[in-house]
Please model this.
Amino acid sequence: MSGDPFHATRAHDGRAPDVFHPGGWVPMRQYRESEPVDFAIVGTGAGGGTLACKLAEYGFSVVALDAGPYFRPLEDFASDESEQTKLYWTDDRIVDGANPLQLGGNNSGKAVGGSTVHFAMVSLRFRPEWFKSRTLLGYGADWPLDWREMWDYYTEVEQALKISGPVTYPWGPPRPRYPYRAHPLNGAARALAKGCEALGINWTETPLATLSAPRGLAHPCVYRGFCISGCSTNAKQSALVTWIPRAIAAGAEIRDLAMVGRVEVEPSGLVSGVHYHRDGVWRFQRARNVVVAGYAIETPRLLLNSATARFPEGLANSSGLVGKNLMAQSNQAVWGRLEHEVRSYKGPPSLAITEHWNYEDKGKDFFGGYSYMSQGPLPQLWANTLFSARGLWGESLVEAMKDYNHVVGLRIVGEMLPQESNRVSLADEVDQYGLRIPRVTYSWCDNDKRLIDHSLKFMSRALEAADADDIWIQDDDTCHLNGTARMGSDARTSVVDADCRSWDIPNLWICDGSVFPTVGGANPSLTIQAIACRTADRIRALARRGELNAAVPRQTSIRQRSTEVHRS
Ligand SMILES: Cc1cc2nc3c(=O)[nH]c(=O)nc-3n(C[C@H](O)[C@H](O)[C@H](O)COP(=O)(O)OP(=O)(O)OC[C@H]3O[C@@H](n4cnc5c(N)ncnc54)[C@H](O)[C@@H]3O)c2cc1C
Ligand code: SF4
Model:
């Protein structure tokens, strides 16, 4: 073990933890703070980690900073739900609105690798029409991206993560075969399949970012089910074990325990670097470009906290939309009991899925769609659910827990509509760094409620059809925050353009789930990573055309080769 990851930085002195070897290190390039790097990236999760890798491989100089620790999964992660709450962003936040969001474990991560270190690995493409939902489906806002281009980037990410999925996917336009075979179904997934078949709709094995066969130094999944508590085998293809090692090998520097408090703006109106807190002091990293990739709450918070006399409403905010149009996804569940043992905790939480109601528009009284998946809660999470959703406590809770091995559940990922009133703003209180904390305001609209109602009725029928009894609904849950810095084609109605470049400040970029104009009914991380890959390609193209405040990319091969030599 190499020190306490919360109190001592691990990426320093020209080396970073080797996530594949206990106690091991890999060489890492280090940049001087006083010399501007091409890109300072705030956040190393699905958006920032992917972009750091791609930009470094294209030859740009990159420093990526994360407020969280640099974990070594093989040593730091335990099969213990309580211990693993260390993965979550639990700094103070204020929630309000008619439907206040539950933050913490349910939302963002705080670690090198971001929320992908504890995500559930469901890796879905968006329905093509969602990219033009206003024009084609009559709700939300159009994206400035074309689905065919996204389809290519989805393929790139699926290959990079070796997604395990079915041979043919039942919905949407054809896609290449998934790189790795699908995982076997567990008891919960078989119940989903049975219900779908009885109701006459399609289902399939869930495409997952966990390995169904060995990959290099990473082992295949061993079906222990601790995925959302952090996988200690490295089967999970998080940014921590995929994009970040690639980024370092290509010459990027990662700085852990580095909380960025402010993006600096020069009198010229361009940004010049980031102020960040590390090792007990505030420091400044100069940069030709800054990318904010801190998740849908921390990204607007940083932009708002970086206000100047020239940009009094915060950076990139001439549209007034920074922080607005925050979108959760609805995450309601239906639970039941099967006579035989299900042991649904075995394996990744969601091994089977139906996207029927993402692609079928007939028979809906709402805009948008939802998928639903089989569920596999671990015991502590299950006890919490019984307490918070059913009010069970004491003897009644103990009695209910005796049925744990028979529990079966279905849970939606549902589309919630963008509303300006759902937003992240700054509260007056400050955090441990003296930075104003975020206030997160959220209320469901009527459309959100109709979608939830439809899904709960349909999933109840599906569980009945799977022979479950004692069926009950958990009707207050959300997940996956996106929006707050939407992309668009018009500077008046969006924060960034299709390249994730802010309209107001040409060397300030945003690259995470914040840029989503709509959220669809599918988990977002594959789309975030696909957008990051596209952004990297666009940045390279802009640099080559001289339209970027950065050095023209160098050839990467020499540096990559020398890094590889160094590693061996
Ligand atoms: C329990 C759970 C299960 C999930 N399951 C799935 C799933 O199955 N499939 C799916 O697609 N999605 C899933 N998600 C959602 C997915 O993980 C996120 O949508 C995705 O990781 C968001 O990417 P991001 O780049 O926006 O932010 P993140 O991946 O969260 O990365 C943001 C990073 O920025 C850092 N940061 C923030 N502010 C600062 C700052 N000021 N200075 C320095 N660093 C900063 C944070 O520490 C963090 O590491 C799940 C999420 C949770 C919580
Ligand atoms: S079930 Fe697979 S992905 Fe999940 S924690 Fe275990 S080995 Fe990792």
About this structure: The radius of gyration is 23 Å. The pocket of iron/sulfur cluster (ligand 2) is lined by residues 210, 221-227, 231, 233, 235-236, 347-348 (CB under 6 Å). The first helix runs from residue 46 to 57. The chain has a mean pLDDT of 94.
